[in-house]
Every structure is written in C-alpha cells, then in structure tokens.
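Researcher: Quick one. two chains, 568 residues in total.
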Amino acid sequence: MKSRILMGMAVIAMVAVLSGCGKKPQVEIDATNAAIEAAKAAEANVYLPAEFAAVQDSLNAVMAAIEAKEGKLFKGMTAEKEKLAAVTALANQVAANVAAKKEEVKKEAETLLNDIKNVVTENGKLVMKLPKGKEGAAVIEQIKADLANVDSAVAEAQGAYDNGAFMDALNKIKAAKEKADGLNAEIKEALTKARIRF
Amino acid sequence: MGKPWWHILIISAIAVLLTLLVLIIFYPVPDPPSAEMKDAREAVSLARKNGAGMYAPDLYMEAMAAYDSAMAEWRRANTIFIYRRDYSKVTALAALSEQRAIEASSISLNSTSNLSVVLERELKELNILMAEINRAFPAYPLSTEVRNRISMGKMLLKESEIAYKGGHFLEAERKISESRTLLESSYEYADTHLKSYFRSFPQWRIWVDSTIAISRQNHDYSIIVDKFSRKFFVYLDGEKITEFTAELGKNWVGDKRRRGDKATPEGMYKITKKLEGDSTTYYKALMLDYPNEEDTIKFREAIESGSLSPSAKIGDMIEIHGSGGRGADWTAGCIALKDREMDSIFKYIGIGTPVTIVGSMYSLKQALKR
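Model:
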C-alpha cells in the first residue's frame, strides 16, 4: 500500500520537476545581449556588418526557440542555453575580429594617407616645373585647381582618421589617391613631352 | 470478502489523478508559431542582406516592427494558461512581417538592379561629358571659379565610381548628381561662352577666304593665324605651304580691345617691319600694322559707348616673334613661334605680307572635331 502511495507521489513530483526546470534562461540571455552590445560598441556594425548581422540573426532564432519552449508543458531549456552560449561566443569573436579589422583598415588608411601625401608633395614640385604649361596656362590652372581639391580631400580624410573614423577616412582617401595618381601621371606626361627632366 | 472502503477510495483517487495526468499530458495544446516566426525572421534577414534598409527603408522597418510585435505578442500569449493560449495574433503579425520583408526585398532588388543600370549609364554619360570638357576647353581661358567647379566635379565623379564599384549605389547616386550639377553647369557656361565667341565665324571665314585669294592672285605669301587651334599657316599662291604651332596672349578669346588686356587682335593686317638682333627682345620679329583704321574706329566706339573706360589706351606693338615653343599662351597679345620657325619664315616673308588673325578657320563644330 505504502509503495503505491509513494509511486503516485513520485509521478506528481516528476511532472512538477519536468514542467518547472524549464525557466527562461534570463542570465544567459542577458549575457548574450551584453556581448552583442559590446560588439556594437566596438563598431562591429561598421567594420564587420555581415558578421554582426549574423550574430543578431542567431540571437533572434534562439529567442524564438525559447518562446517556443515557453509555450510547452515541459520546458527543457538546456539546448537553448547552449545555443545562447554559442551566440555569446560568436559575439565575442566578432568583437575580437573588429579590433583586428579596425587595425587593418587603420593601417590601410595610414598607408594610403602617407602615399597620397608623397604624391601630393611630388605633384606640388612637378607642377612648379611646368611654368610654361602643358597646352597652355589654362591647363596649368586646371591642374592647380585639381591639386587644391585633392589637398582638401586629403585634409578631410586626415580629419576622419584623427577622429578614429578609419573606414570613413579610407573611403575618402581612395578617391583622392586615384585622382592624385592621375594628376601625377598627367603632369609627368606633360613634362616628358616638353622634355623637362623630373 | 470485499476490500475495505478506504482501500477503494485510495485506488479511486489514484485513478482520478492518473486520468487527470494523462489528460494534462495528452490534452491538445495550441502549437507555438515557430514555423511562422522562422519564416518571418528569414524573410527579414534576407531583406536586410538585399539592402532593403537602404532601398526600401519604410517597408523594411515595418517588417522589423511587425516581427518585434509578434515576439512581444508571443511572450504575452505564453503568460496565459497553456490550454487557453491563442497564437493567432502572433501568426498574423509574423505573416505581416514576412510579407513586408518580401516586398521590401523585392523592391530593394529591383531598385539596386535598376539603379545599377541607371548609374552605370549616368557614369558613362558623365565620363563622356568630362572627356568633352577635356577636349573642348583644355586651353580655353575659363575663370578660376569655373576651373574649381570642373575640378570638384571630376573628384566627385571619381568618388561616385568608387562607391558604385563598392555596391554603394545610393552614395554613388548622390555623388553623381553633385558631379553632374558641377560639370554640366561648367560645361554650359564654357559652351555658351565659346558659342558666343564663334558668332564671329562668318566674318572670320570671309577674312580667311579673302587672304587666301590675295595670295593666289598675287602669287605671293599670306599668313593666317587660327587662334582656336593655335595654328600659324603660311600660304603661297593660295596653297598652304607650311604650318606651325602659335602661342598667343593669355586672354586670347575675343578681339583685342585695349592696351594691357593680353588679347591677340583679330583682323586683316600687314607686316610693317622686320626686326632682329638688338631691335627685338624675342629673337626675331615681324611687326604688324595693329591698330589699323578699323581697330581705331572700334576702340573709339567702345570708349564712346562706355564699354571701355575713358582712360583706356589702344594697344599697339603687335608682332609675330620668336622665343615661342613654351606650350603656353604667354604673350601680351603677340603671336610667338619657335626661333627656328621664325628663322625659316623670316627668310621669305617680306614687308607688306598679309597677316590675317581669326578666332577660327573652321566652324565651332568642325573646330571641336579637329
């Protein structure tokens, strides 16, 4: 008789345990959100937008899975906790990768800035050797106007770089570099035609 | 002998409990809308990847908001007693989110595809315009402001090409628009200026034909200077026998109006003096009879009409001289040739040789084609 009573109580206890052990993994959710916020603060959305979006997608999927479990009688959240841990790890990885990517962009911007400054300096010197112009004074005036524009683009890019906006600086400098290189080639061609050594 | 009554009571209670337990376990509960939410989530994600955030921002935001609302509704529904839950609102919101995301995605794809085609065409057009500017106005004396506008337009064109290549179509579109404004306005200004200058073409043509006819008639030399192409032609018996590159006054567009305007005059002149050695600064020179009677009349009229200051003086000392070959329009209004070219014409060009200076021997269309 006693054993039957015990068996009944065991069944009830099992039901209680099975339905109660699936509490929402709030601690893990908070940790994942914090990791994603940290990645965002590190500008993952600027430097690694695709990877950052993937992390957010993963979190959304896990949150939906959690809600699905919440709707069930027996809420085993073990798998969701593992998924949250994986998303947290992914967010941390992205945050770490951002630093590397940022450094890479910074170096590229720095290199291009130095390169363009050298080209700008060279252009400045070369244009002085063209006092007589290429096809006329008007052409020199146009080259000078172009050089002034490159100068202001370089200054803008330098400003962005100094403010830590390396991606912005890189985008700005790429166009200016192309233009400065084009001018350099144009001036050198003119000097070569005029048989002026440079 | 039957079981005691309490025994039967306990067995009955257990049976009721077990029945209840079975009912609890197997009673149909509403299925969570996981599949619908997954579809919505994937559609939103795809829309974002397709650039809907940029190209269909309103629809994309609507899709995201509907998804967030669906999640909030799902959470709310889950707080209700399990057998009374109703996920129909969640399902509806998820469906709305998916629908909007699909629409946003589609619009975005169409936009990027269309924009890509449009931008490619616009970039091509702008590059043609830029090439036209480079072809028509490289040596045309434009103001510093116009030069700056052209330069900024060129820079923006370069930036828009980079943005286009990087798939940043909206940025490319904006920069193309800015570049177009600058380049087109500069081109129009320069083009209008040039067309206005070429209104004198019929007169120039008469002078040129007349000069060639004189050469043919007199079996003698004549000189024609084409300012636009910067060419110096020598004719004998009405046939062109040689041509050189000429360098002109810095402000060569238009007729000379006064002393110091650095313009090269336009008209029919004659050589009045041949200078060499110490009598000229520029190696060798052929002095022209500028200002002639017509120039003097025009100058007086300009003073009288007020288009020239009363203190203005008429120009003089216009020559064809050496020290050229600088590749620039650098003279104060004279025509400069290389020294060896001066040597060659100096031998046979005599005093009285006709020298006709025109804006162009060809129409604007022909001149630009050349």
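Chain B has a mean pLDDT of 91.
Researcher: Thanks, that's what I needed.
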